[in-house]
Amino acid sequence: GNAPPGVDPEAFSWFQAVDADRSGYISVKELKQALVNSNWSTFNDETCLLMINMFDKTRSGRIDLYGFSALLNFIRQWKNLFQQYDRDQSGSISFSELQQAFSQMGYNLSPQFSQLLLARYAQRSSNPSIQLDRFIQICMQLQSTTDAFREKDTGLVGNVRLSYEDFLTMVVTRMM
């Protein structure tokens, strides 16, 4: 068949290929099998779940054709940004590239924080770097927690005072 109105034909044909069980929906498992990083590793479960949840309007844990089409557009935008920050065109983001990316995105984060992210999200190696899936995950989580912080930092001073439970509430509602 042809793509319905408002759906990119490429997204439609890819949806049909990815929808392995022919349910008319894409699950986290199906999405994970469809997306690969530049090193041919599949996208990790956490990133796939974050993205499914972002485009799952019914809260069913899966997305329909329209959600999938929007998700592909979302991934294309992130991939373009990723390639812009991948200055050496290695297919991954190194420590210095990550620092530059954060700075250009308007985040004033210490080298120690970037190192912490590399330790948490990069594949273990002598020269750790971030793949596209983890870059998307880090940026989505950073944006979400920044938004939560700004809700409390009404004076935009860069500091807030909160109770432990308020902090936990911020994290759980934004990250889980």
TrEMBL record:
UniProt xrefs under Gene3D superfamilies: EF-hand
Protein name (record): Peflin
Compartments, as annotated in UniProt: Cytoplasmic vesicle, COPII-coated vesicle membrane; Endoplasmic reticulum
InterPro entries reported in the protein's UniProt record: EF-hand-dom_pair, EF_Hand_1_Ca_BS, EF_hand_dom, Peflin/Sorcin_CaBP
Superkingdom of the organism of origin: Eukaryota
Gene Ontology process terms (BP): COPII vesicle coating
Domain EF-hand: 6-41, 73-108
Lineage: Eukaryota, Metazoa, Chordata, Craniata, Vertebrata
SUPFAM superfamilies attached to this UniProt entry: EF-hand (SSF47473)
A single MF term (Gene Ontology): calcium-dependent protein binding
Pfam short name (any one): EF-hand_6
Record's keyword annotation contains Endoplasmic reticulum: yes
Keywords annotated in UniProt: Calcium, Cytoplasm, Cytoplasmic vesicle, Endoplasmic reticulum, Membrane, Metal-binding, Repeat
Any single GO CC term annotated in Swiss-Prot or TrEMBL for this entry: endoplasmic reticulum
CDD domains listed in its UniProt record: EFh_PEF_peflin
SMART domains in the cross-refs: EFh
Membrane association type: Peripheral membrane protein
